[in-house]
Amino acid sequence: LLPLGRLGSDILGERGLPAEQVGHMAAANLLLQLKSFGPVDKFLGDQLIPLLALASGTSIIRVSELTPHTKTCIGITKQLTNAQFTINTGPGSSAKITCQGINLTRRENSS
User: Fold this and answer.
1) How far is CA 10 from CA 29, 36, 49, 59, 95, in A?
2) Tens-digit pLDDT profile for residues 84-109
3) Which end of the chain is more exposed for a tag (fewer CB within 10 A), N or C?
4) What is the pTM of this model?
5) Is 88 helix (H, G, I), strand (E, B) or coil?
6) Is residue 24 among the annotated active site residues?
7) Which listed residue (62, 69, 71, 78) is catalytic?
């Protein structure tokens, strides 16, 4: 189902919550991720935003869930870099994020 990739799921248990119930909750989270068909999960999406902005050309990612944290990261990154972002929502809470990067390159030392 996921060639050359890895996907996991976790959940935080609570005191008194049976391990079987914790396992079912983790499995439910994993199924939600699989059903979204978003190759970038909600925890990675926000971390990729600054990299998309610094890259050259157009970058596109599909996130399984567009979180408030990812939206905030896009807003801050826009202010810092002037990179252009568009968000197209997909099925469920998934989204396609497109960024026109600023093509940041390293300057050579002129010494």
Assistant:
1) 7, 17, 23, 29, 22
2) 999 999 887 889 999 999 999 988 88
3) C
4) 0.79
5) strand
6) no
7) 69
